[in-house]
Amino acid sequence: FCTPCLQECLKPKKPVCGVCRSTLSAGTRALDLEKQIEMTETTCNGCNKKMYLSKMRSHAASCSKYQNYIMEGVKAVTKEPLYNTRNFPNRFTFPCPYCNEKNFDQEGLVEHCKTLHSMDAKQVVCPICASMPWGDPNYRSANFMEHLQRRHRFSYDTFVVCDYDADEDDMMAQVLMRSLRDK
């Protein structure tokens, strides 16, 4: 994860997991996991020296053979990317349309706008809607705060299996078929 994304996940009000976005509970040490790390042996991929996992981080920082091993892996991965990421729209993080602060997830953008821009009447384009295939990147909402409250109370991905390439009629047909099967 990049630093801005991690910072968004660790907001003081409600820190969330960087993967599933569920709320993190108060920190407690995983003593059983610490013990397992202290007792598990591993081998350095650079120099083949055996050590406990708990010592691996400090060893890796000083082992030139390990650092060469990592760099070879980085070179292999970055030579030919599997796909061009520019062809895929970002539907996970959004900029604030008022102040251009970046890397908000949908819930974070709603909270940010409610906190800092609730009185701003400027007409803006909804970055969430604009990222969707059916969204119009030029449509300026007359009341963006009302739009956020009504349209983006929850994330599409959380409650439905999204097929962003399907049109509304196809999605409706899929929902109806699923509801018939669930009876």
From TrEMBL:
GO terms for molecular function: ligase activity; ubiquitin protein ligase activity. Residues 44-63 form the C2HC RNF-type domain. Pathway: Protein modification; protein ubiquitination. GO terms for biological process: protein polyubiquitination; ubiquitin-dependent protein catabolic process. PROSITE patterns: ZF_C2HC_RNF. InterPro entries: Di19_Zn-bd, RNF_E3_ubiq-protein_ligase, ZF_C2HC_RNF, Znf_RING/FYVE/PHD. It is an enzyme of class 2 (transferase). Keywords: Ligase, Transferase, Ubl conjugation pathway. It catalyses: S-ubiquitinyl-[E2 ubiquitin-conjugating enzyme]-L-cysteine + [acceptor protein]-L-lysine = [E2 ubiquitin-conjugating enzyme]-L-cysteine + N(6)-ubiquitinyl-[acceptor protein]-L-lysine. Pfam families: zf-Di19, zf_C2HC_14. PANTHER family: E3 UBIQUITIN-PROTEIN LIGASE RNF114, ZINC FINGER, RING/FYVE/PHD-TYPE. This is RING-type E3 ubiquitin transferase. The gene is Rnf114.
